[in-house]
Amino acid sequence: MTTPTREDAWRLLTEWTPGEALRKHGLAVEATVRWYAENRFGIVEPELGTWCAAGLLHDFDYERYPETHPMRGAEELRRLGYPDEVVEAVLGHGDHTGVPRVSLLARTVYACDELSGFVIAVAYVRPNRSLDEVDAHAVVKKMKDKGFARQVARDQLTRGAEELGVPFEDHVSNVIEGLKTVRGVLGL
Predict the structure, then answer these.
(1) Cα–Cα distance between 74 and 115 in angstroms, integer?
(2) 6-180 has which CATH code?
(3) What tens digit of pLDDT does each residue of 89-108 get?
(4) N or C, which end of the chain has less CB nearby within 10 Å?
């Protein structure tokens, strides 16, 4: 069986995820993971496609199976022939699974997941709702506001950067740059 393509991953996401917000989140995480792959780690095709699939699909099963997310999604990815490293990254993208993040890909998906959403939330409250109005300082300031995006675990944001070995403010800047590559889709 051949490795599923990016188009296959997009089809799977849209089939399992009817909600536009979660689809956009998948695109955001894919973009930030891709940014790291290309700009920080020098990853190229065909491995780059694996990284993009992991970012895009990390939450694909959430709307169908919120109680068993991401376990049920991992089963489906295995059934469809996705590489083990994609399955590992999906299983390790949240602390609630207890799955260790062994690979650089898994650590990158984890580091980009919650921070992508948090950066987007910061952009939404800026006057022009633009990523051009967001920098690391603005993100760190909003992290201190416990009432802002209160569902986001601040320790997970910083732990992701630590696991990548990147200073937190640099990580924020990298995520912003990755998000800018899909700003049109995100409306930012």
Answers:
(1) 22
(2) 1.10.3210
(3) 999 998 888 899 999 999 99
(4) N
